[in-house]
Amino acid sequence: MLKLEDPILVAEGIKRGFPLPGGETFFALKGVDIAAPRGKLTILKGKSGSGKTTLMNILGALDLPTEGTVQFDGRELTTMSEKERTKLRRYEIGFVFQSVALIPIMTAFENVDYALRLGGYKGDRRERAMECLEMVGLAGRSSHMPAEMSGGEQQRVAIARAIAHRPKLIFADEPTGELDTNTAITVVKIFKDLCASQGVSFVMTTHDTGFMEIGDAVYELEGGEVISEH
C-alpha cells in the first residue's frame, strides 16, 4: 500500500466472501490494501472479474467487507450503523456510474437540482446547479434533455450531479466504459481539474490501460488481489 501523508481513504486487509452451494466461500477480494490521496485521482485498474467494483462498493459504504477495515477521513466505516453509512453517502460521498442514470424527463439543470434537493442543500440551489454545469463545460446545455445530449455530455451532467452537494470523495465506476477515446479523455481531465480546483478526491475504476499514467495513485487488481501499485 502506498505511504501517504494525509490520505482521504485507507483500506486494509479487505476480504469479501460470497457463499457457494455446498458450504464453500468464494472470495472476490483476498486481502486488499489501498490508500487514496486527498484531493487527487486514484485509479483502480483491472479486467472484468478482478474485484475492482466489489472493492469500490465497500470503499463507498455500499457494502461491508467480510474482513478488514476502511477509514474514510479518519472514521471507520465498517463499525458504523447502516443509518450512519447512509448519511455519509448522502452528504460526503458522490457516485458516477458507467450507465449515467440521468432522469430522462428532467433537463440537465433539473437533474443537478434534484440531487441538491435530495442532499438537503441549504444554499442557492439554482446558483449551485449552474456553477456545477459550468465546471463541466455544459452551462449552455442546461435546458437540454438527456436524449438531446451525446453520451459524453450525459456523463458530464452526471459528474455535475455528483459534485453538486460538495462531497469530499467521488467514486466513478467505469465512467468512460461506453465513451470513445477522445470523450473518455475529456471526462478524466474533468476529474483532474476538479481535484485541482475544488479539492475533491476521486476514486475511479477502469479496465483501460491508457489511463494508468493519469492517476495520482494507481492500483492494479487481478483475481481479487493488488498485483501492482504506483
Walk me through what this model shows.
With 230 residues, the protein is α/β, with parallel strands linked by helices. The chain has one domain (39-64, 74-229): 3-Layer(aba) Sandwich (Rossmann fold), CATH 3.40.50. The chain is 31% helix and 29% strand. The chain is built from 6 helices and 10 strands; from the N terminus they run βββαββαβαααβαβββ. It has helices at residues 52-59, 82-91, 108-118, 125-135, 151-163, 181-198; strands at 7-19, 25-37, 41-45, 67-72, 75-76, 93-97, 169-173, 201-206, 217-222, 225-229. Strands 6-7-8-3-9-10 form a 6-stranded mixed β-sheet, sandwiched between helices. A 4-stranded antiparallel β-sheet has the order 2-1-4-5, covered by helices on one side. The longest helix has 18 residues, at 181-198.
Q: What's the main sheet like? A: 6 strands, mixed
Output the CATH topology: Rossmann fold
The separation of the N and C termini measures 9 Å
Q: Report the structural category.
A: alpha/beta
How much of the residues is beta strand, in percent?
25-35%
Overall number of strands: 10
- Taking all Cα atoms into account, the compactness measure Rg is 18 Å
Return residue spans where pLDDT drops below 50 for at least 5 consecutive residues.
Answer: none
What CATH architecture do you see? 3-Layer(aba) Sandwich
Query: CATH class, anyone?
Result: Alpha Beta
What order do the SSEs take from the amino end to the carboxyl end, as H and E? Answer: EEEHEEHEHHHEHEEE
Number of distinct helices: 6
Would you identify the CATH H-level superfamily? P-loop containing nucleotide triphosphate hydrolases
**Strand order, biggest sheet?**
6-7-8-3-9-10
Average pLDDT reading: 93
Tally of discrete structural domains: 1
Which percent bin holds the helix content?
Answer: 25-40%
Overall geometric form: globular
